[in-house]
């Protein structure tokens, strides 16, 4: 995942390349994207506070400005490309056209999260301490773009028909895409930290957040049009996503890195710190709660499939749901930030869990609700009741993702001590990477017992997460 920012100074970057002008325009408009989604923890970079400690020469200011603008554009393109192939709202429908196996449908979001988290600990051990991060970040971006480009070419050439061959190609390409994205995240964040002064990093990453979220709204409109066009629309989405990801890889090359002295950090050091971490009760309780919250996503791939195949929601409406989810993520950000400041991370995580409870509750009650005469007399036809009910589901989905992305970072940092912070972050991410394979279980439940059973299971797991949230440490009191 990725994040964006602008400095608001109105300065311009001169470039002979057309893409350079686009990047300048994007960054000057002041949008942001925080790439982390439930994919969101940041490895600790080597501090470069000396950039902000003294007045900088004009040449250095230009280099920082260039890195800032292209770094913001990089995050925007990354989230835009990712939103066009959203694993829950787009790719589950794509796989649903190729097979009726619910386990394979559940595998899509499982790969999206698990293969993004799992390589990060190894990536940190591999690239942390190297003199340069730019080559690793750039080649990781190229690899993820190529994976989607191959998929786009195959779908454009052969169309979409139920086929085991196309299904295998899809999963291979999508696995490569997520592994490359997870690996590239570590050097990309380190690269950004080396290129941007410490006193502007917060603004930088917040701008990436806004840009990406707003471009996700545009992606929602494109998805709506593409899916309304029928199966051929998936080829358009894959091709457009490839173009966005290729532009993201290109913008990485324009970030000016300040090389750091090489220092070794073997994987053995990371492993040796685990027993001490697990001996701390606060860490064990946090991991227990966070695991239940991750398990409650068991039904996520099946909300849109249920809405379309059982309730008859048109495929084009999925794009609108994606837009609503993105709007909710943007709108909820300041609210969640206020909650953390006022009450702390525990309250934020509890509210996020309540929103998760709402999703399966609505899915379970939407059919009886659509037949309730008192409701239909006010809303209209049952189809309208279903449309509005599932709109609430995806608004809650977007708001929950926003809360989890914020809390995944702030809550872990609150638990960690400075010396074991990288170890705790890497270990928590690896645990979440394993737990996030739970949608596979959801597919088994759907195949054997149906949609109602998987929604009940998600409801029960979210309730357990709510109960265990009471074990989280109380927020630290800050003098006002």
Secondary structure class reads mainly alpha
Low-confidence stretches: 1-53
At CATH level 3, the topology is Growth Hormone, Chain: A
Mean pLDDT: 78
The domain count comes to 1
DSSP helical segment count:
21
Specify the biggest β-sheet.
none
The H-level CATH homologous superfamily, spelled out, is MFS general substrate transporter like domains
At the first level of CATH, the class is: Mainly Alpha
Number of strands: 0
Beta-strand fraction estimate: under 5%
Distance between the termini: 34 Å
In angstroms, what is the radius of gyration? 22 Å
Write up what this structure looks like.
With 480 residues, the chain is mainly alpha-helical. It has one domain: MFS general substrate transporter like domains (Growth Hormone, Chain: A, Up-down Bundle), CATH 1.20.1250.20. 75% of the residues lie in helices and 0% in strands. The chain has 21 helices and no strands. The longest helix is centred in the C-terminal third of the chain and has 34 residues.
SSE arrangement:
Elements (H helix, E strand, L loop, with lengths): L17 H11 L21 H4 L4 H27 L2 H12 L3 H16 L1 H9 L6 H25 L5 H32 L2 H31 L3 H21 L14 H6 L1 H5 L2 H15 L4 H10 L7 H26 L2 H26 L2 H7 L2 H34 L5 H15 L3 H11 L1 H19 L11
Helix pairs in contact: 1-3, 3-9, 3-10, 4-5, 4-14, 5-8, 5-19, 5-20, 6-8, 6-19, 7-8, 7-10, 9-10, 9-15, 13-19, 13-21, 15-16, 15-18, 16-18, 16-21, 20-21
